[in-house]
Automatic annotation (TrEMBL):
GO terms for cellular component: nucleus. It is an enzyme of class 2 (transferase). PROSITE patterns: PARP_CATALYTIC. PANTHER family: POLY [ADP-RIBOSE] POLYMERASE (PTHR45740:SF2). Keywords: Glycosyltransferase, NAD, Transferase. This is Poly [ADP-ribose] polymerase. It comes from Dreissena polymorpha. GO terms for molecular function: NAD+ poly-ADP-ribosyltransferase activity; NAD+-protein mono-ADP-ribosyltransferase activity. Gene3D superfamilies: 3.90.228.10. Its EC number is 2.4.2.-. The keyword Transferase applies. Residues 1-108 form the PARP catalytic domain.
Length: 108
């Protein structure tokens, strides 16, 4: 995966892959506005360790930044994953996403 983050996609097909129907067969996705800011593109899931809790460092180009606490390196705001059939947009802070609609549906 892409770390301990919140993942979004611009593809409803991809979002549907992550849903699980309830007992009545109802599925749910959330349509949100997402602030990506200054993002970095990742093409492999292995580019972002699954334990990552923040985006990669801009200078070290990894989530495992080697800066000193008194002089921290700046980090990207988000990750855009392009290695799959559908893009994924990854943010690490709740404030970067605004849920706008909840869509309930049943698969036919
Ligand atoms: Zn760094």
């Amino acid at each position: 995966m892409l770390g301990k983050a919140i993942c979004f996609t611009d593809s409803f097909v991809k979002a549907d892959q992550y849903t699980k129907p309830d007992d009545s067969g109802m599925c749910c996705v959330i349509m949100a506005r997402v602030l990506l800011g200054d993002f970095v593109v990742a093409t492999n899931h292995s580019d972002i360790p699954s334990t990552s809790i923040q985006p990669p460092c801009k200078e070290c180009m990894t989530t495992l930044c080697k800066s000193k606490p008194d002089n921290p390196h700046p980090r990207f705001d988000s990750v855009v994953y392009t290695g799959g059939l559908h893009k994924e947009f990854v943010v690490y802070d709740n404030w970067q996403a605004y849920p706008e609609f909840i869509i309930f549906y049943k698969r036919l």
